Structures are given as C-alpha cells and as structure tokens.
Amino acid sequence: MEKRQRFLPVSFLFFFFITLAVWFACPQIGAADDHRTTARARRDAREHHRHNGHVKLFVFGDSYVDTGNFEPNNGSWLPPFGRTFPGVPSGRFSDGRVLTDYIADFLGIRTPIAYQQIRVGNISEQLKSGVNFACGGTGIVSAISKGPILGDQIGQLGQMIRHRFYNQTDLNNSIAIVAASGNDYLYATLQVFLLNATALTRRVIKQLKTDLGRIRDEIGIPKVGVLLMEPAGCLPNSAGPSAMYSSKCNDAYNAIVSNHNQLLKQAVRDLIKESTNNKKNGTFIVLDLFQAFSIALEEHKYHTGSLKYKNPLKPCLTQEHGKYPCGVSHNQNSQVRVCKHPELAFFWDCNHPTQNGWDEIYLALQHSLYQFYDTE
Ligand SMILES: *[C@@H]1O[C@H](CO)[C@@H](O)[C@H](O)[C@H]1NC(C)=O
Ligand SMILES: *[C@@H]1O[C@H](CO)[C@@H](O)[C@H](O)[C@H]1NC(C)=O
Ligand SMILES: *[C@@H]1O[C@H](CO)[C@@H](O)[C@H](O)[C@H]1NC(C)=O
Ligand SMILES: *[C@@H]1O[C@H](CO)[C@@H](O)[C@H](O)[C@H]1NC(C)=O
Ligand SMILES: *[C@@H]1O[C@H](CO)[C@@H](O)[C@H](O)[C@H]1NC(C)=O
Ligand SMILES: *[C@@H]1O[C@H](CO)[C@@H](O)[C@H](O)[C@H]1NC(C)=O
C-alpha cells in the first residue's frame, strides 16, 4: 500500500475536481464527414510547404506535444493509448497523433524523434527532423511527473549541441515550439499551495520568458513558436462531471488561464523588442491555442449537438469502477472502457484530446503557423 500519493497520474492534468465515479456512455455518431475537410487542409499545408522539407523542429513542453519521452510502462505507454495511431502505445497521451505530429506535417517533415527514443546507429537519420524533448506532466517551474521541466529540456538540447549533433547551420534552419498547458497550476493545486494564483502566474511567466530567451541566445534557434494555454477550465476534469453534460466551464480556472495568456503575450512582445534593440537573430511567434481550442470545441459541440448527442464533450476513456470519473490512472489501464468511436470523440481522457480533437484544433490553429513563413 502506498502511504502517500504525491503525484496523481499524469493523465489527470488539471485535476481540480476529484469527483464521484460516474460512468458516461460515449457518443456514437454515424458519419465521419469531418475527416474530409481535415485531410484536405492537411494536404494543402503540405503542398504549400513542400519546399521547406529541410527545416528541423525542436519541441519542448508537456503531454500536449510529447511523442515518446514519458517514463516507460506507464500512462501513455500502456494500452489503449495509441490504438488509432500508430496502433500500439507510442508515448502519446491520445488515441493517435498529437499536436507535434500536425505541426511537423505542416512543415513538411517527419515528426521529430523523441529524445528518449534516440538509439545508437543511424543517428544522423534519426536526428534529421529535429528532436522532441517534451514530456508529459512537466511544467515551467514544477512537474507532476518525473520528467524534466522546461529549462532542463532546453539543457538537453544544449548538451546535444555541445556534443556536435547539431551545428549552427542546422539551428539557423530550425523552428522551436514551446507548450505549457498548465501543469504548474495543477502541481500547485495538488500541493494545496495555490494560495495566490496571480503570484504563481507571474513566477511561471517570468521563468518562461527566461527559457524562451535561452532558446534564442544559448541555443541559437531563430524562430520560436510559443503556445498560449488552452481553455483549461473547459477540460472535462476541470469542468467537473456535471459540465460534461452542460458543457459549462470552470470560470475560476479560465480566469487564471486568461491572465497567464495576457502576461505571456506581453513577455513575447518584450522579447521581440529586445531582439530588435540588440540586433539579435530571434523572433517569437504566439500560437493561439486558446482560440483554436475554443473554436474546435464549439464546432464539435455544434456538430454533434445537431445530431442530438447530449454529451459531445464526454471523454472516450471512462472507468466503470474506480476512483475517477474518467480517464485512467497509470496502472489501471486494463479496467478502462474505450468508447466505440474514438474517431468521433473530441476528448480522449479528461485532459487530452483524441486525434480527432487535435485534427479539429489544428484546423483552427493552422493560420497561426503561417507566421513562421511571414517572418523570413
Ligand atoms: C534507423 O535504423 C533503425 C534500425 O535499422 C530503423 O528501424 C529506423 O527506421 C532508422 N531510423 C531512421 C530515422 O531512418
Ligand atoms: C507513473 O508515473 C507517475 C507520474 O510520474 C508516478 O507517480 C507513478 O509512480 C508511475 N507509476 C509507475 C508504476 O511507475
Ligand atoms: C552542419 O551539419 C550538417 C548536417 O547536419 C552538415 O550537412 C553541414 O555540412 C554542417 N555544416 C558545417 C558548417 O559544419
Ligand atoms: C546563422 O544565421 C545568422 C543570422 O542570419 C548568420 O549571421 C550566421 O552567419 C548563420 N550561421 C551559420 C553557421 O550559417
Ligand atoms: C497575490 O500576489 C500579487 C502579486 O504578487 C499581489 O499583488 C497580491 O496582493 C496578492 N494577493 C493576495 C490576496 O495575497
Ligand atoms: C544576426 O544576423 C545578422 C545578419 O542577418 C548578422 O550580421 C549577425 O552576425 C547575426 N548575429 C548573430 C548573433 O548571429
């Protein structure tokens, strides 16, 4: 018996409401007409950027972009994760592709290898598209998993550069993506010291600004895309089980998110000004995940709502028996129920979109990504 559960399972990011075990049936919708649009959008992006196949992508952050750095035999490495793509667990916190896969696709390159998956042998082949350092459960100043926080992830790339896996020419032709989806706030909540959210947000953004500056100045990547936080208060966990029916959000948490995003945008403006004033070769691009996520959620609600599904935002994974109303805990994946049509659901578990969800979010985010080409 564990005396003290210090960390909640990582699949429970933003676990503000530890609520009753309620089992929700998954919506089952007849037609998957969304996929037409999505496939077309992805093809368009690829056509448009085919010429750019030499760019490398370096990814930092948490489970929204992790493609295989989470600790083995845990969470995203256990079935049923990965059942849609690649068919077996791949360390992605979803049934299939996550945001990193879509961004790589947009750039016309293969998904960069996860740092923990680099193996001896064809190293230059493996490193050709860049590296993903993101790890589920991590944040800017704290982590709810054993993974490295953002600054340490950047340190991992620094070390690779010192070992000459990449030279300045490579880095000049690279893009970095930074995702921080809320684990710092979750950590504080779990530790019951979220006494002053404003103060925590300031601390988080101050550190994030330092880290973004390091990617430009220490690492030497000239284009850094930073994701705003998603409307975390609208995730099934944060919103609570009743919200899964009413689609209401946790306004208190969304107010924190809103403040976080305002301060982050200001920090990015400051960094850009600093680049200009000091003639530094680095620009920063805000990727509005808040807006894209919100649009995708609304579209999904509207779409499934029109088909008279009561509960379009209910996660695909549920537990019949167990402590949690949805999702899985790392060693209980066997008890989990998977909905019949993950390809029609928006949320995979209580905190993470399905591949279908990411597909819809990507559609809404895509215009933000063109900024990488507007800043040549
Ligand atoms: C590197 O080699 C391994 C083993 O031969 C192979 O499975 C893998 O696809 C190769 N990786 C790349 C990026 O070519
Ligand atoms: C899985 O990961 C979580 C978060 O890092 C940790 O608390 C837990 O002990 C891990 N489970 C196992 C079986 O290692
Ligand atoms: C930098 O590394 C790339 C391979 O990643 C290589 O093709 C290129 O010649 C190197 N450039 C210099 C200046 O060493
Ligand atoms: C990298 O880019 C900067 C800015 O464009 C340029 O000054 C520098 O010479 C480039 N370095 C290499 C090795 O290409
Ligand atoms: C919370 O922190 C902020 C910033 O440090 C401070 O201005 C504010 O007075 C604090 N609020 C409370 C209730 O302590
Ligand atoms: C930045 O780029 C300019 C030209 O684009 C170059 O002259 C300068 O040396 C670069 N600075 C650094 C730090 O790479």
UniProtKB/TrEMBL annotation:
SUPFAM superfamilies hit by this protein: SGNH hydrolase (SSF52266)
Any Gene Ontology biological process: lipid catabolic process
Pfam families for the chain: Lipase_GDSL (PF00657)
Superkingdom of this protein's organism: Eukaryota
An MF annotation (GO) of this entry: hydrolase activity, acting on ester bonds
Family matches, as InterPro entries: GDSL, SGNH_hydro_sf
PROSITE patterns in alphabetical order: PROKAR_LIPOPROTEIN
UniProt keyword Membrane, yes or no: no
Transmembrane segments: none
Signal peptide boundaries: 1-32
Keywords, ordered alphabetically: Hydrolase, Lipid degradation, Lipid metabolism, Signal
Xref: PANTHER family: OS04G0650200 PROTEIN (PTHR46020:SF4), OSJNBB0059K02.9 PROTEIN (PTHR46020)
Family statement: Belongs to the 'GDSL' lipolytic enzyme family.
UniProt-recorded name of the protein: GDSL esterase/lipase At5g03610-like
